[in-house]
Design brief:
The chain is an alpha/beta fold and about 250 residues long. The chain is about 45% helix and about 10% strand. The chain folds into two domains: about 60 residues, no CATH class; about 160 residues, Glutaredoxin (3-Layer(aba) Sandwich), CATH 3.40.30.
Length: about 250
């Protein structure tokens, strides 16, 4: 605010205060005579007053202004960025699903490590699905779905993405896998030996009966692995890498 403006504001304030005092002491109605008396009582601002105020509050010079720090532009790239969950590869899943449908898919398994498949369905309760996803990610197991949501691959991947979030977990749609391993309910857990080889069959590719073991029930991944170790001792060693990861 400039100096004349500041003095003008003080004069206006004095005029308003005088009007308020007059109104409270006399009649609530303000007359022209009251206004005239208030104008005469208001201080007159002269050139001398303006000059005195200017000397009392001088404008800063260039030297003073040069010492005032200039705000820097914030570095947007240095600000914390929201965590973006990794996107599931829609194209890769689509190619894999179509290859399974037309029978051209080739099942390959790592030769140096056993494989753990967790068969699930979106019909399972949400808490059960969330728990299995978290445990599958920790154990490095693969989630397997039978089919598509409303017959749409896009909806299926979107639903899976919402469920998996930022977790790193393998995910595939393989309706033939349910027949290949005799899965009749979800959740089910299939543990395959390391280095097993598939052979051609009606389900596209199959494994020998002694190449895998199946456990089914609404249990945790850890419980299923421990159950397999107790009931199928020949697979106890295959279950150990997954159990170690789950135990941290």
């Amino acid at each position: 605010m400039s100096v004349p403006d500041a003095i003008g504001c003080r004069a206006a304030f004095a005029l308003a205060a005088l009007l308020a005092a007059t109104a409270s002491a006399q009649s609530p109605a303000i007359t022209d005579a009251d206004l005239e008396r208030a104008r005469r009582a208001a201080p007159r601002v002269t050139d001398r007053d303006v000059e005195a105020a200017r000397r009392l509050h001088p404008m800063p010079g260039e030297a003073e202004l040069s010492r005032v720090p200039i705000p820097s532009t914030p570095k947007v790239d240095a600000l914390p960025q929201p965590v973006v969950p990794p996107q599931i590869g829609l194209d890769a899943i689509a190619r894999g699903y179509r290859a399974i449908e037309d029978g051209s898919a080739v099942t390959s398994l790592p030769s140096s490590e056993p494989t753990l498949l967790v068969f699930v369905s979106f019909s399972l309760p949400e808490p059960t699905l969330a728990r299995l996803v978290e445990q599958a990610a920790a154990a490095r197991a693969t989630l397997v779905l039978r089919g598509l949501v409303d017959g749409s691959l896009t909806k299926t991947v979107a639903r899976a993405q919402a469920l998996i979030g930022s977790r790193q977990v393998a995910f595939q749609i393989d309706p033939l896998a349910f027949d290949r391993f005799g899965v009749t309910q979800v959740p089910s857990f299939v543990l395959l030996r390391r280095g097993v080889e598939a052979r051609a069959c009606e389900a596209g590719s199959c494994f020998a009966a002694d190449a895998f073991v199946l456990a089914a029930g609404d249990v945790s991944v850890r419980y299923a692995l421990e159950f397999i170790g107790r009931t199928a001792p020949g697979f106890a060693g295959e279950a150990q890498p997954f159990l170690r990861r789950l135990k941290g």
